[in-house]
Amino acid sequence: MERVPYFAQFESRDRVLDLVSGRMDPADDPLWQQSGATDPAEYAEWSSHICGMACLKMLLAHWQNRVIPTMHLMRECRAYGGYVVQEDGSIKGLIYRPFVSFLEEKFGMQAQLKEHTPIEDIYDLLGEGYVYIASVHPGIRTPEVAPPKQGGHLVYVFGRKQESREVIFHNPSGHTPETQEHVHLSLETFARFYAKRGILIKPTGEPQA
């Protein structure tokens, strides 16, 4: 099986559960500097919002052999309107349409927003050279637990297993190696978490072996 590079949205991938649960302050992540943040405070402010940038980081490493820190990607995407810091300090994003423009203009990739699109439709396209950044509930890290809703998090879908009709993806907020890299879920299970929207991408370059 092709080994696709993996990156978490938090730099300490072995501490993800502590970070998302609040047991650990992101400012205390000992690897925060690898994100490209200017200081721990910036990292703490943004790290829970950049699952989409982690997906993009994986996509670029996969197809263009480029590894760009997530915070660098966030700043460039923000310049396109992909993130907005509102008056109360809250962060809105990832905003899909500006992100599509960012992918096309900055990285030369064909990208399109998909809405009201069943995962079965995406599954068919995965065999035609497309990848997909899919909106799912973050609880997808524990697929045995029913999610309260769909969406709110992004994962990088890059493959499929035809014999069992499974999608293969990386989850930037997975909490174990098995829930982070090369996760296999049936279409039926994935659909329980999937909000039927995301970004379909035809990458440029060649996938890295």
Can you describe what's shown?
- InterPro entries: Peptidase_C39-like (IPR039564).
- This is C39 family peptidase.
- It comes from Brevibacillus brevis (Bacillus brevis).
- Residues 4-172 form the Peptidase C39-like domain.
- The mean pLDDT is 94.
- The relative contact order is 0.18.
- The strands form two sheets. The protein has a six-stranded antiparallel sheet with strand order 3-8-4-5-6-7, with helices on both faces. Strands 1-2 form a two-stranded antiparallel ribbon.
- Strand 1 and strand 2 (91-92) form a beta hairpin.
- The protein is globular.
- By secondary structure, the protein is of the alpha+beta class.
- Helices cover 33% and strands 21% of the residues.
Features:
Cathepsin B, Chain A; alpha+beta; Peptidase_C39-like; 8 strands; C39 family peptidase
Task: Characterize this entry briefly.
This is C39 family peptidase. This protein has helices spanning 16-21, 40-46, 51-64, 70-79, 96-107, 119-126, 177-180, 187-193; strands at residues 84-85, 91-92, 110-115, 131-136, 153-161, 166-170, 183-186, 194-202.
User: In the residues, how many domains can be counted?
Assistant: 1
- Helix share bin: 25-40%
CATH class: Alpha Beta
Biggest sheet overview: 6 strands, antiparallel
